[in-house]
Design goal:
The chain has 542 residues and is mainly alpha-helical. The chain is built from 17 helices and eight strands.
Length: 542
């Protein structure tokens, strides 16, 4: 840890201090002044204090040597955190799950004799993350209701886990769950499951002391070698903060004190407290934790369970709100598209000829009033300023029409023969002639009934026949669907039928099957034009 560690106010620790029984008459003022009790000031480094036999004293770090009489303050002594100790006996694997917590030392220590060490479940999970593998700790956690999710939340609250993605978080939780299952099946029952686990009858949920903790290697019957002692403050490496309130037990309070204070060696030089050798030394000086119901594992686990449930409710509410907002935005986009389509349809609304009713002697029928034939004026291939290609409505081209577009465009180089149509006069029945006394007001609408309906109908048919333009662009040539294949409808026409659709159908049959194009009824106009061009000498496509 490279940054100074922020700890709780030390006065919070004094509320648990039993000055009469625990400190053996030590003056608490000496603790607040960052000095150790005079009876401890001259304890030789490497020699055990009376009543606190250490099994790790042969590994204690030599006291630093100084060249002057300057004695640093407690703040100066603990300003820089030591480098992490080397990782020992940590299993490495290619499985991403097993990498979680792999960089944290096992801390497989045995505590020296000297009294109870009441550690909360948060104490153990945060300061000794690897201890949950131990059968002793494993049974305690599971019997008190721990889950992998609760343990992960506690770890994430107090430690830097280095997890940056949702996938890594899921793998970390899965690792905790897998480890519980693996260890319980190893030490208790080969068919153990979390769902069927029950605490044994008479289990004491208030038990918190770890003074008799035994490393896993000793429980499994293997050889045990005590690891070297370490500076007490090294236990804070990797922490975001120290546990506070009901989460804090003797381990947290001892670590907090060791980070803010120091002890003196035999030469009077300040040195760090050592773990685990000095834990009873510190607890006797500051007082041990007075256990309350809030410190019990069950209370802490229930509290974190409620926190998780509240956070999950907030998360689900936010997720539902996000989904609703997304659905609303999608619906608004759909409505905007529908409105745009409706506006486009209104702008391009087709003009349908109006129908007028005319009464004949044999009843009422609807017929379309014929309009006068347009006046065609020849002017260099243009009609009223509009080119001949712009006259009439052309439906979208089919695939076969696009394929022949290049060929058809070449026909324009041969020119288009100019034709003149002689139209008969418009029947008098279709011409409106105002009276001599015409006024500005139009004459009233009156139903018209000719003297001879048969003659009138014949006049109309003669006029319509004389004014046909034979423009096939806007008028369907037959009742066949435009997508129907021409070669499939050729048998519908007689051999002497010279209509455009019949000619195109016979041409499609003569052409035979093609792997590239399929000629349809909608292509009849183009095919007839190409056939006519071929008849005039064009030797291109046809």
């Amino acid at each position: 840890m490279t940054q100074p560690f922020h700890c709780p106010d030390f006065n919070m620790l004094l509320e648990h201090n039993n000055r009469d029984n625990i400190t053996a008459g030590n003056n608490p003022a000496t603790v607040l002044e960052n000095t150790i009790d005079p009876s401890l000031e001259y304890i030789p480094r490497g020699l055990p204090f009376a009543g606190y036999e250490s099994q790790n004293r042969h590994n204690q770090v030599p006291a630093p040597q100084t060249t002057d009489n300057h004695r640093p303050t407690a703040h100066e002594a603990s300003r820089s955190m030591p480098a992490p100790p080397p990782v020992r006996n940590v299993p490495q694997s290619g499985n991403p799950r097993s990498q979680f917590l792999s960089g944290i030392p096992l801390h497989d220590y045995m505590f020296p004799q000297g009294g109870l060490i009441n550690a909360t479940v948060v104490d153990i999970i945060v300061i000794f993350p690897q201890w949950f593998r131990n059968p002793y700790i494993l049974e305690r956690f599971l019997n008190n209701g721990i889950t992998a999710n609760i343990q992960f939340v506690i770890l994430d609250e107090y430690r830097h886990l280095g997890l940056t993605s949702v996938e890594q978080l899921e793998r970390a939780r899965d690792h905790l769950s897998d480890t519980y299952r693996k260890q319980m099946r190893k030490y208790l029952d080969s068919k153990w499951t979390k769902q069927t686990h029950r605490a044994p009858y008479g289990w004491n949920t208030q038990t918190m002391s770890i003074h008799d903790f035994k490393p896993e290697s000793m429980v499994s019957g293997g050889p045990y070698e005590a690891p070297p002692s370490i500076p007490f403050k090294d236990l804070a490496i990797g922490l975001k903060k120290l546990p506070v309130g009901s989460d804090a037990g003797d381990l947290t309070r001892a670590l907090d004190y060791a980070m803010q204070n120091y002890k003196l060696d035999e030469h009077g030089h300040p040195v760090d407290f050592v773990f685990p050798d000095d834990i009873h030394l510190i607890l006797d000086a500051i007082g041990r934790t007075v256990v309350t119901a809030g410190n019990a594992d069950v209370s802490i686990i229930i509290r974190y369970h409620n926190i998780i449930r509240e956070h999950e409710a907030v998360r689900r509410k936010k997720l539902a709100e996000d989904r609703r907002q997304t659905a609303d935005e999608r619906r608004q986009q759909e409505l905007a598209v529908e409105a745009a389509n409706q506006s486009m349809n209104q702008d391009h609304e087709h003009q349908i000829p109006t129908q007028q009713s005319s009464l004949y002697g044999y009843g009422q029928m609807d017929w379309q009033v014929p309009q006068p034939a347009p006046q065609h004026y020849q002017s260099d291939g243009e009609y009223g300023g509009m080119s001949s290609t712009g006259m009439g409505f052309h439906p979208p081209r089919t695939y076969s029409q696009d394929a022949a577009a290049a060929v058809a465009s070449r026909l324009t180089s041969y020119g288009t023969p100019q034709t003149t149509t002689s139209l008969p006069p418009i029947p008098s029945i279709c011409v409106f002639s105002p009276s001599d006394d015409d006024t500005s007001q139009p004459p009233p609408q009156q139903s018209w009934q000719p003297q001879d309906p048969v003659a009138a109908q014949q006049q109309i048919e003669d006029w319509v026949a004389a004014n046909k333009t034979f423009d096939l662009n806007g008028v369907p040539q037959c009742s066949m669907h435009p997508a129907m294949l021409l070669r499939e409808c050729a048998d519908r026409f007689a051999a002497d039928d010279t209509s455009d659709i019949a000619r195109a159908a016979r041409w499609a049959v003569a052409l035979g099957d093609s792997d590239v194009l399929e000629w349809t009824v909608g292509d009849a106009e183009m095919i007839v034009g190409l056939l006519d061009a071929a008849a005039n000498g064009f030797e291109g496509f046809i």
